[in-house]
Amino acid sequence: MNTKEAIEILKRHNEWRKGADTQQEHPVKVGDAIDLAISRIYYLADLLEEGIAHLENLEWQQNMVETYGNFVMNAQSMVYEVKDNAPNLID
Predict the structure, then answer these.
(1) Distance set, CA 23 to CA 6, 31, 34, 50, 53 (Å)
(2) Model pTM score
(3) Alpha-carbon 42 to chain mean position
(4) How far apart are CA 3 and CA 79, in angstroms?
């Protein structure tokens, strides 16, 4: 299961839980989706903490254009990693 599939399972499960006329998701699939979502949240939090620490430690004399470019590149990399390539930290 990838992140996108986990999100879809959780969305369908939540709709069903709120009374939508849909089929209940299998409890094991819901549990697996929850585990994956939790692992992605922890991974994202770690990446953001690293990014914040990096920004806090920047030398003020550095070229701000270079800093901005690096920040954007790192942010794009974080988004890519979280979407489907983050390790499953639950395993």
Answers:
(1) 16, 16, 18, 41, 45
(2) 0.63
(3) 8
(4) 12
Cβ neighbours of 27 (radius 10 Å): 9
Buried b (16+ CB within 10 A) or exposed e, 52-79: eeeeeeeeeeeeeeeeeeeeeeeeeebe
The residues, ordered by sequence, that sit 6+ positions from 82 with a Cβ below 8 Å of its Cβ are 3, 40, 43, 44, 47
**In sequence order, which ranges of the chain are alpha helices (DSSP H)?**
3-17, 27-56, 64-80
CB count within 10 Å of CB 6 equals: 21
Percent of the chain with pLDDT over 70: 69
> Measured on CA atoms in the order 20, 25, 27, 33, is the torsion positive or negative?
negative
pLDDT tens-digit map of 15-47: 999 999 999 999 999 999 999 999 988 888 888
